Amino acid sequence: MKTWALFKLKCNISFRRHLLNLLLLFFSPSKRFIIALSQNLDKHIVLYQKELNSLYSKQHNSKSVKEIAA
């Protein structure tokens, strides 16, 4: 993913987290739409972490020419 997509995903996570925290002040956590919002937030967090992991592994798992030749 590009950095713009990661930024957009991070903004979506932040928005959903703040919305969930605000709604939890007024509604019970067992309400159906609160549960749906929480699951949606979890889905976005998993996508964000997968992309961060793939970026990290691409940067740190590449072997140098000396390691390959040895």
Automatic annotation (TrEMBL):
Domain of life from the UniProt record: Bacteria
Name of protein: Spo0E family sporulation regulatory protein-aspartic acid phosphatase
